[in-house]
Structure prediction request, 890 residues.
Amino acid sequence: MSDLNALAKCLKDIENQLTDCMKCGMCQAVCPVFKETGDEGDVARGKIFLLERLSQELLTDAKGAKARIEKCLMCGTCAANCPSGVKILEIFLKARAALTEYLGLSPVKKLIFRGMLKHPERMDTLVTAASRFQNLGTSKADPALGTRCSTLLSNIIGERHFLPLAKKPFHKICTSLDTPAGKSGLRVAFFPGCVTDKMNPEIGEAVLRVLNHHGVGIFMPKGQACCGIPALASGEQHTFNSLLSHNVDLFEAGDFDYLITPCATCTATIKEIWPMMAPENSKARYRAGQWAEKTMDISQFLVDVLNVAPAGADKAAVKQVTYHDPCHLEKSLGVSRQPRQLIKASADCELVEMAGANTCCGNGGSFNLQNYSLSKSIGMKKRDSILATGAGVVATSCPACMMQIRDMLSQNHDKVTVKHVIQVYAETLE
Amino acid sequence: MLSKSLITEFENICGKNGVMTAEVDRQNYSYDAAVLDPVSPAAVVRPGSTEEIGKVLALCNENGVPVTVRGAGSNLSGGTIPMKEGIVLLTNRMNRILEINEADMYARVEPGVVTAALAAEVAGKGLFYPPDPGSQAVSTIAGNVAENAGGLRGLKYGVTKDYVMGVEFFSAQGDLVTSGAKTVKCVTGYNLAGLMTASEGTLGVFSEITLKLIPPPKASKAMMAIYDTVEDATQTVAAIIADKIVPCTLELMDNFTINAVEDFAKVGLPRDAKALLLIEVDGHPGEVAEDGARLEEICKKMGARKIQVAQNEAEKEKVWEARRAALSALARLKPTLVLEDATVPRSKIPAMVSAIEGLAKKYDLSIGTFGHAGDGNLHPTILTDRRDTAQWHKVEQCVSDLFDAALNLGGTLSGEHGIGIAKAGFMKNEVGQSSIDFSRTMKAAIDPNTILNPGKIIGM
Ligand SMILES: Cc1cc2nc3c(=O)[nH]c(=O)nc-3n(C[C@H](O)[C@H](O)[C@H](O)COP(=O)(O)OP(=O)(O)OC[C@H]3O[C@@H](n4cnc5c(N)ncnc54)[C@H](O)[C@@H]3O)c2cc1C
Ligand code: SF4
Ligand code: SF4
Prediction:
């Protein structure tokens, strides 16, 4: 019992937040995981109840509780719809950290987080090496989408259709930048994020092109590390802290008006999770607090700050583009209008809405790795909505969502191209 | 604890995935939306078909295992808090709409169908299923029938019981019983469908429900009347009813709730108003226009400071957004929220509102009052922190006084949330001992081993 007491102490921090949940169950209506499983353990109410029981030392199976709490997309749909305003994501993140502290990290995760992710240079070398050998044992899955699948690796990655690692990661294409403000009079700090860097450098290139087009100066320090959310979502607070202070040191070296990213998850993490989860009284917390206001998704920056507006009525729309709202933009930050504006601002594009554009695609970071079949059945619903629009392009604002959507479409050999909104826009610039 | 062999038998019936016994899973089915102590069941069993429900019940009956059925677990009276030696029978795998018959205007559904999903499906066919409890986005039809749930439209369209045409349910012994029909009229045999409505899982387990559908109204009109005294607002309610106008919705909100809603949702409500009435009439366009005009007259005559009539759908939506936000807004103020539903004859609404105000003063508690004034069903909502033992004690006494006040005015303990275990102890004050005895005799005959949701409503 003394052991449980130690865990209960770790959870003291969130105890007050837990009591805000009135157990109304309204989160059942919106949770994508609950929609599939119908199990209280998969919805916010149940998870919060388990944490309450742990904090009161009335539940002995901490491991079992951890498994339930981790079976979650962290999509924030519940939080966005909770009548009591329960800070659900904050509770889950803090609880994951407390539970991991108490139960320890699995050896695999230890290797991934402490051995690799924590050290950006090591990670970069490893990924570069992997990109050379990756085609061994994989085969082309869908030529149109450029995806591959792997029989050799199927034990680890299952039947996924994935995009190969980029031959040249973004940080090799463009190591660093420090350019003065152009005609816009503004300078932004650019945080491309891991997936853009290692898998979709073309998103990073599109961002640079657009910023140059609008005369925006760019500060992009060399050697950026991951935003830290994968570590934090696995309860690995130490790695998160170290990644955060690494990035903080890099970015405080420059001056900038806004901090922008093309990744919904990175944006939400920098804007909300950094100030919330940075160690108390640290420099990181102070800087994160200063930057939160300035942090923006790229579409939001273009539309709200640079006033990019939809093209006039005389444009000849030839391409139909549908848009998927990443949870971290729509639910966490309330950004949904701006990416759409950007599509409308793209010369030859017409926006066609899909049904349930703002429902989660089912990726959820490591959720996808741990619960692939569940992730897939949620993703297939997204695929159905995309196809129903008849659009040839599905655009979104998060490279992780792109990965998931590409997997779903590729499995079915659908002829729909997956793009980042900024690519759609960049392609139409002169 | 249940024996290993019994668990295996449940697994044989429902499949391995259909039975949960891990500590975390059992704990996750130990509570519902009521503010009561949780109780973990010995197992959670999840049938996937009608036959499986029957087999599970027969097995439980033979072995004396208590069964608590659970839909969405959104009830507010502890109706789904199980027995620790018993099982929770979860119905949400059975969520098919079996038929929507447009010609005869009825729907047949499995027990676990979510209310809002049915309403949407029905609306898609140009028909209307009116009962709309505030929980409709999650609550199940069987849960609605078992609680006789009401909603915002209760005043004109009635509550769930008014739409139950027929039921199929399993008895404690696991036998399939049917009652009612697909016809509007049916007097064949005892009205078992009526008996089962509001039975809270104590008399049988629904496996199929046939519900009446109606044509949707052609037009509607919504307005908000603003008052400087609660008395004027409540007198208006009485005057509207006396004038023989039946709005589809007639909701009251007090000053405390108005301010909570404004703080949270910023919909532009007048913070200084002592009370608001939100009114909607629907039906034939001519009738709507006539009733709407008459309503404005009545509100003015009864002292409304201002009346805002919604000019379009968007404005109408705003009126209802304010009302829908009420519970959420109050929920954000304090950790524990006790939502009561004591109900009085509508002419007694003014008296009930002042009784509630008196109790808030007497016990020094924050009570927000809003609710279905049109049908006498108010929701005095006490805001507190359950961890504060001294205050919680006051809350319990306040609730008890609240029930007395409602009963003294000729009202009832529960307008829509049911008795469960939350109000079982107060039943006698309303219906008397002989009524409880009669119910117990009936229950003992139907469920001799007392396996169906023991302890709820009549305490056995
Ligand atoms: C935010 C909120 C708003 C609400 N608003 C309203 C409202 O406006 N009006 C209203 O009336 N109620 C309201 N409620 C209360 C609640 O939602 C209703 O009582 C609803 O009918 C419960 O449905 P459920 O599916 O959650 O049932 P549960 O809570 O799971 O069960 C309720 C009862 O039904 C029994 N039951 C369930 N399934 C079966 C079955 N197949 N056979 C036999 N018995 C069964 C259970 O044993 C239990 O006794 C509200 C609750 C919340 C949290
Ligand atoms: S919606 Fe919010 S308050 Fe209601 S049960 Fe879910 S987390 Fe709790
Ligand atoms: S964050 Fe998403 S997946 Fe997790 S409980 Fe909330 S709604 Fe469900």
